[in-house]
Amino acid sequence: GENVEQHPSTLSVQEGDSAVIKCTYSDSASNYFPWYKQELGKRPQLIIDIRSNVGEKKDQRIAVTLNKTAKHFSLHITETQPEDSAVYFCAASKSSGTYKYIFGTGTRLKVLA
Amino acid sequence: DGGITQSPKYLFRKEGQNVTLSCEQNLNHDAMYWYRQDPGQGLRLIYYSQIVNDFQKGDIAEGYSVSREKKESFPLTVTSAQKNPTAFYLCASGQGLADTQYFGPGTRLTVL
User: Fold this and answer.
1) Do B48 and A105 make contact, defined as CB atoms within 8 angstroms?
2) Of A29, A28, A46, A49, whose CA–CA distance to A37 is shortest?
3) 3-state DSSP call for residue A82?
4) Residue B69 to chain A, least CA–CA distance (Å)
């Protein structure tokens, strides 16, 4: 069945360093890839997304890259800050079939001050 | 995501009771979703609805029921058949295929 693998499950970085989280999807028809940040006890919030017609997208310290051939996409956070500490989820969806997302299992990011 | 509300924020259920969680959106979204999240875990899809008066089972639908009588509302009932319902329940809505889902603030359900 369809699935999204997300790695690593936990990631610790020093403040100011970069963090990279990778997701690999199985359904080649997937064409929309959002990333969510979830702080403890809160709702997931969209931080960036990318569609399959684009290879990279940036928003200040956050970027997402997509490799359709390899079927993987990555979240890059530069100059990390303590407030970046949270759980990050990737997801994949497509323009045909059902409306549901396939979510990754999450990455717990800790930024050490 | 400010246009999605869930109530109550906290809910306590006794053994054998059915309880209903509310989800309302004013974003004019066609699709609505219910997810369950256990402590330290990911998001698991319970039910979703792509249009009024229609809904589909997700990955863990057993012990839950939903209705979609209005575009704005998608209530979730946790029945007594759900043996381990203690969890954080998140509702989401979106325009549909390959589009952003926006989450409500969640309801934390605890079985006493």
Assistant:
1) no
2) A46
3) helix
4) 19
* Strands (E) located in chain B: 4-7, 10-13, 19-25, 31-37, 44-51, 54-57, 64-66, 76-78, 87-94, 101-103, 107-111
A61-100: b (≥16 Cβ within 10 Å) or e: ebbbbbeeeebbbbbbbeebeeebbbbbbbbbbbeeeebb
Contact (CB, 8 A) for A113 and A82: yes
Nearest CA in chain B to A98: B97
What are the pLDDT digits (tens) for A49-97?
Answer: 999 999 999 999 999 999 999 999 999 999 999 999 999 999 999 988 7
Sheet with B64-66, side-by-side order of all strands: B4-7, B19-25, B76-78, B64-66
- Beta partners for A103? A91
- The residue among B101, B102, B107, B110 with the most chain A CBs within 10 A of its CB, best to mutate, is B101
Among A80, A77, A52, smallest CA distance to A66 is for A52
Helix H or strand E encompassing B59: none
Q: Taking the CB of residue A45, how many other CB atoms lie within 10 A of it?
A: 14
What pLDDT, on the 0 to 100 scale, is given for residue B2? 56
